[in-house]
Design goal:
about 290 residues, alpha+beta, Molybdopterin biosynthesis moea protein, domain 2, 3 domains, three-stranded antiparallel β-sheet, about 25% strand
């Protein structure tokens, strides 16, 4: 009598299995793209290079609290030869981040500004051009590359995007994954009632683990109802999954050498088994297929 058990004839190493997968699927072009607000783009992957729309800062800004002046008017100033400046004409009080008044190019920190009278201050050292000034484009220059393609956006990147005038960003769509749990002994957590499980039943926990891992990696997940160990029912569940817009289907269990492990056969009926058996523990019965 012919055995109904699966036998691993061509085990693959993890590296070989991964390479087979990458050779059959162009993963970089596997996902489409969508546009999302930059404020909601954390942990998303850029679908194309992102360039600044405008500079940051987009005006010359004070980097310190003090007085804005024209540096050239202070050349030669020393403790022995202090320079008097008239407020509103030679000097302008300014706070950090404010736009530099027209005709000024330096800021003297308020700690070094000596009041003389209500309209006059004095300094005891010369300033130099652009002293304590954040010049246009100091952080980001318009048209500059902010983020490359295939970059996972961090919270700090969001700040750079907004400062560069990028309010919306093209990102790769989130991978959509369907999980099909199989096993006649399984019971979904939501179906558990009472304090004792029925004899021979096991809480289906693998899907919850995989769902959490998928979402942690940026994917979307849909878990199908538990499918019993019946090849026709597993086949129907897989067919239903492949008719959706999902990118990946995970069939949980049924891939080992048991007489009721039908996953490999079901995949062959709809497509091709690329790998069955990987030299790792746990995970030896892993199957990679394409339908």
């Amino acid at each position: 009598m012919k055995s109904k058990r699966n036998i691993y004839l061509k085990m693959k190493s993890v590296e070989e299995a991964r390479q087979i997968l990458f050779d059959r699927f162009n993963l970089r072009d596997f996902l489409g793209k969508e546009t999302v607000p930059a404020t909601k783009a954390a942990d998303r992957v850029t679908a194309e290079p992102v360039f600044a729309r405008f500079s940051s800062p987009n005006f010359h800004a004070a980097a310190m609290d003090g007085i804005a002046i024209r540096a050239e008017t202070t050349f030669g100033t020393t403790v022995d030869r202090p320079k008097k400046l008239r407020i509103g004409k030679d000097a302008f009080f300014i706070n950090t981040g404010q736009m530099m008044p027209k005709g000024t190019n330096a800021v003297v920190m308020i700690e070094y500004v000596l009041p003389v009278d209500e309209g006059t201050v004095e300094i005891e050292s010369a300033a130099y051009p652009w002293q304590n000034v954040r010049r246009v484009g100091e952080d980001i220059v318009a048209t500059e590359l902010i983020l490359p393609q295939n970059h996972m956006i961090t919270p700090y990147d969001i700040g750079a995007l907004l400062n560069g005038g990028v309010l919306n960003v093209a990102v790769k769509e989130k991978p959509k994954v369907i999980i099909i749990p199989t096993g006649s002994e399984l019971i979904r957590p939501d179906d558990v009632s009472g304090e004792i499980l029925p004899p021979g039943r096991v809480v289906e926990s693998n899907s919850a683990i995989m769902e959490a891992l998928i979402e942690k990696c940026g994917g979307k997940c849909l878990i199908y109802p538990v499918v019993p160990d019946n090849p026709e029912e597993i086949l129907r569940a897989l067919q239903r999954a492949t008719e959706t817009d999902c990118h990946l289907v995970i069939i949980s269990a049924g891939s080992s050498a048991g007489s009721e492990d039908y996953t490999a056969g079901v995949i062959r009926r709809l497509g091709e088994v690329l790998v069955h058996g990987v030299t790792m523990m746990p995970g030896k019965p892993t199957i990679l297929g394409m339908v």
